## 1
Amino acid sequence: MISKKTQYGLKALGYLAAEYGKGPVLIADIAEKKKIPIKFLESILLLLKQHSVLESKKGKGGGYFLANAPKKTSLAAVIRIIGGPIAMLPCVSLNFYTKCEDCDEVNCGLRRVMAITRDATLKVLEKKTIQDLVDGCVEMEIGTI
Amino acid sequence: MISKKTQYGLKALGYLAAEYGKGPVLIADIAEKKKIPIKFLESILLLLKQHSVLESKKGKGGGYFLANAPKKTSLAAVIRIIGGPIAMLPCVSLNFYTKCEDCDEVNCGLRRVMAITRDATLKVLEKKTIQDLVDGCVEMEIGTI
DNA sequence: CATTTGTCTATCATATAAGTAGACTTGGCG
DNA sequence: CGCCAAGTCTACTTATATGATAGACAAATG
């Protein structure tokens, strides 16, 4: 289970993806449309900005907007920023690895299985981007037709 | 991330899988070998027994043992018993579904992606069993040679 | 310079996780 | 029968994470 925080962050990004190219979007606007507590959302957006997923503009006419095209940011990246590790165990995490006390990692059966699980999950989350979070009809891959 | 509790449960099952067919195993034995706080382990094993994953025998010569052959119990089943949902969001959980307030599930982009992720994860966890948790050399699939 | 908007710090409430203690029950065995 | 070895159950305790809120501060626009 991902935290509410991560969920809120992903929803907000989906909204910003839909508004991409239309200039800054108000925090209050996102909060209302996506039904997210505004002060909580503030901290999430700030975090995403600090990790270069978002950019912002202050003052009148300001707001938040995606730092890059929606397709450029994977869901895995976002989840790692807000929610931390994607793997089910610290000892199989690629980005948040911590050594497993009390077990020989080389022979650990649990570790072996969890590594496989991680790969399967990541295969999806690395490929999907915040473009895929846009609500409504499924976005077609136009490609280079 | 799965909880320590789930992790302990899986490790314990891995140990019991290795001892399968050799009669009851003491809680204290599992706790020592797998370095799990004994009282904590007690409650986990009891929970697994209540869900028919384990059986136990009381009194002298008693202990815990698998209710079925190691291959018969999937990791998904165990994780659901101890740790709850496998999906990343309640609204895409197959076994612990709760309706998503504040969002139209049909059109929710996040939900769509999380359902795909869940499928990828489950494909592994439904297939792997506690047989796969046995430490040491990778178990070969002998099959019906 | 005043208003709008994002930024930052601090705090709080609650829930969950993790672990501990001790009494109770069951069953084997002499 | 009666002891002892095991699992069973109840009740806490403590630590940490989560979710949320309030308010002061800083920057940019017009």
## 2
Amino acid sequence: MAKVKVGIPQGTRDFGPDVVRKRNYIFNTIRNVFELYGFQPLETPAMENLDTLLGKYGDEGDKLIFKILNNGLNDPSNIDKAKAAFENVLKGKNDRDLTERALKYDLTIPFARYVAMNHNQLSFPFKRYQIQPVWRADRPQKGRYREFYQCDADVVGSNSLLNELELALIYHQVFNQLGIKHYELRINHRKILTALAELCGGAERMNDIAVSIDKLDKIGLEKVKDELKTKGLNEKQLGVIEKYLGIGGNNAEKINAVNDLIGANESGKKGIGEIKYLINAEPGPLNSPLIIDFTLARGLNYYTGTIFEAKAPPEIKIGSIGGGGRYDDLTGLFGVPNIPGVGISFGVDRIYDVMEELNLFPAEVHVGIQVLFFNLGENESKAAFSLMQQLRGKNTRCELYHENVKFDKQFKYAEKKNIPYAIIIGSKELEEKSCTIKNLLQGSQQTISHQELLNYDF
RNA sequence: GUAGCCAUAGCUCAGCUGGUUAGAGCAUCAGAUUGUGGUUCUGAGGGUCGUGGGUUCGAACCCCAUUGGUUACCCCA
């Protein structure tokens, strides 16, 4: 027997039964909270037209889009076109004659595309949630996969800050229900970053500046300044940056400090006002760990307002487990202007890793089958089968062992599959129309009638 | 795209500065135990040491290439 080499693509994973159960536990928790807040489900295709995705995630993002090769390239009548297209691609361009579809990179842009296509039928504000896989052609490493799930909730067609507030509360509620303590929900505002950029030579510098200051806690102040110097900032501008990065203290102190620095700027004023609203409006009961972090930038360049980032507990070096923000005009990219929106996303795969490391999955997650009927022969198993079907009718998950083998084996099977109850019907029980029920966790057993079994509380 | 580390039984790994026939634990199967598991004991199967080449009297070990995995940078969930 030759060993066939089998495998799955880099950065993808199979999920065995135990893992799927645990993942579903996370999905269900998130879905329930989304529904509680009035969001409705939506699904979009795995692939989109390449044009829909390109240019939405920045240059780095574009490189990470998985492109799908067109079919029919070997058709003789297309062969010259295909060759020319390939030449184009080698030069770093995209060519529709070679690839015109791509796997989706996130859920937000496909959602914007959906809203643009259906804005006449939708009633606004439109609140949707979406739980689907996305694909990125990244190098896999810890907490980073090429196929992973996002759980998004977005509201479009509303400028109200109430939406931001609700989305922040969703973060709290989901993480609390999952038992994840010590996570951080950091917020910032793109307009504050814009104001900073305007003080440092122009709004168009915002992305450069944001990318650099985002690295503060990783590489330190001096290196951030070095990096910005090479990007063309002068000493005076670096001074402003240094002051900005030096802002510390609690949320109120941070707001005062940033107000001194950029409060005179129009964008700055607006951004600060909105952040202030969120900090003060935040209801007390959840005792939120809402943290203002002026270095928070977030890469996706469609954000224009508040930005969120949910960070894993610091003892787990996995970074961000969710993120989101406000975008003024996402559908404008698809020809439908003036539909503002705001949304958040949960990274389920990373949340899973966090929960696994912190041992947060409840034991009940693992219980699949509740009852195993032992197989003790043809007539015995007939009786067992009939009882089993009645139990199934009462919504009890059960199974009959598939062949008549030694007890030993049947017990071990039950143990391995975490089945809490075994039901034994042998010749004796068959005769007196009873059955022996054994609690495998406690080791106790009793003989009861069929009727008692059907009313048993598993 | 750049860099480091790893690859030995189904799984986790050991294997001395290169030296006969490559080991352990777990798992699997069989028996002790024909209607009562989880413990224990006994035994068995299972490896062209990722692949290809080179150095050597001799390679799991050294060198080169290649494939796969993993971690970090970039970027990100």
